Structures are given as C-alpha cells and as structure tokens.
Amino acid sequence: MHTSDGSADRVWFITGASRGLGRAFADAALAAGDRVAIAARTVGPLEETAAAHPGRVLPLALDVTDRDAVFAAVAEAVEHFGRLDIVLNNAGALSMGMVEEFTEAEARAQLDLNFFGALWVSQAVMPTLRAQGSGHIVQTSSIAALGGFPSTGLYSASKFALEGLSEALAMEAADFGVKVSIIQPGGYWTDLYAAMHATSPLEAYAPLRAELERRFAKGSVDSDPKLAAEAVLHLVDSDDPPLRLLLGNMAYDLAFDIARKRVFTWAAWEHVSRAAEHAIPAPGSPAGAGAEEPVAGAAAS
Q1: Which of 95, 134, 141, 181 is labelled catalytic?
Q2: On the chain, which terminus has fewer CB atoms closer than 10 Å, C or N?
C-alpha cells in the first residue's frame, strides 16, 4: 500500500498504545516500516518505544475523554508527520457488573472512554483525511458488540454504540476516499480484566454470579496480541477492506451462532412484524381526510 503522496511508509495514529492490543498494533506498524503517533494516558512506555525508533515515533500523553486534548494531539501529530494514513481507535476499558448495579458515574465513565473517546478522535482526524482524499479509520470494538451478556451490559452498550457510529461514519466518509473498519476481537492476553472496574454487587445477583463463575472456572485460553496485530496489517493493506473483521475463532463462531438465532427468531415472528405496518396517507392530508380519528388514549407512534 502507498500513501497519498506516493511514499511507501504510512503514518498511524493509535490510542491506548502503551499496552495490550494497542502496543501490539504500534509494534506491528513500526516493524512494517511505518511511522506512528502513539497516544496513551501513561507515556513512559511510549517514550521507550520512541527512543528505540528515532524519528519514527511521536509519543503523546492523551486522555481521549478530553475532547479539546484529542483535537490538540491530532493537530500535533499532523504537524509533526505532515499527514495521517491510519487512525486506530483502541483506547478502552472494561467495567463489569449487572445493569442494575451501575451508578450514574460508573455508567458515564464507561461510555466516555469507550464511545465518546473514539468519537472525539474520529471527529478530530476527519478534516485531515478529507483534505488528503485518503485514510483508514479502524475502530476497536469487541466480541461484546455481538450481543449482550450478563455482567458486561454497559461494556456491550459502549461497543454497540461505537459500531452504530462507525457504520454511519463509513458511509459519510466514503465520498472523500476515507475508509472505516471495525475490528471485533475475541480473547487476547492483555490486561483488560486485570485493569477492569467492578460494580458493588447486589446480593440478589449472587446465584447468577456463581453460575457465571462455574462456567468460566476452567479459566481463559486467549491468544497472543501479535496475532491480532497481524490481522490488522492485512486489513489496512487491503484495497477493499471490510466494514467488520472478526478476530479469532471464538468471535467468528459466536457471531454466526448469534446471527442464526436472530434470523430464526425474525422468521418465527414474521407475521407479527409484517402486520405492524400498513401504509396510510399522511394524517391531515386531503387523501387522509377520511381516515378514522384515533381513539382517545391510544398510543401514538
């Protein structure tokens, strides 16, 4: 792949790049000969990476929940490198707990980081990508966006929201030559669970928690983040990248299982779904003047 100015290397902007998948993505980009603006709240590991790759790394201390700081960091990266080619929204965290247990502050914090952080970065980079007429935004979603699961409701909500946003962004950006992809990773050996936040448990959910613990008693068998990074390199090297890319056997199999169940349910309830629609003229229009008046107290659409 070549950049818009004909050079062989590319410029990446990666958030959450100090550890886990973000660190693996940055290492893979550097190994491919590219240059990287690596952003994270903790800059120590980023400075070490910069020292190991003179002139090819721009470390940025960044809290993606701060919109002004995001725009400033993107502007610094563009000024430093002259362009952006691949933007990888990877910053995120996991908050676990039953939906009923979340405080307002906990719920907002989960959405602020996983959803709004990616939104601010996407908004900040679009002017540059539009002006270039090229670029690729890659959003790190999750297997949790395939469906909601007990104790990960708010995390799933943040990733569902990110995917809905990204679908719209992909269509809006396409006319400017800008591509958008969503990656949906399964299990990888990162510190996602070690660094997660947990709600204060309600006793009512103790039996469900015990059942969940029983299911996962054998522990997690996850993969090396380098494998996810290799998949992302394939993605950004493609001239026709997909909107979504599943990463791992578990994510792949679960996606098909959930899709089959949804199709089965939709088909089983088709008669109810179709009966809920019957076009009528607009109320108040001449054609609809003879339509029956709604019954008092009836629900309005």
Answers
A1: 141
A2: C
Q: What is the mean pLDDT of each run of 10 residues along the chain (301 residues)?
A: 54 91 92 95 84 93 97 98 97 94 97 97 98 97 90 95 98 98 80 74 94 77 83 96 94 94 97 93 78 53 46
- Tell me which of 155, 156, 166, 181 is the catalytic residue: 155
Answer yes or no: 159 catalytic. yes
- The residue annotated as part of the active site, out of 122, 159, 166, 188, is 159
Task: Give the fold, CATH level 3, of 11-247.
Answer: Rossmann fold (3.40.50)
Q: Judge whether 205 counts as a catalytic residue.
A: no
Whole-prediction pTM: 0.88
Q: Are 60 and 39 in contact (CB under 8 A)?
A: yes
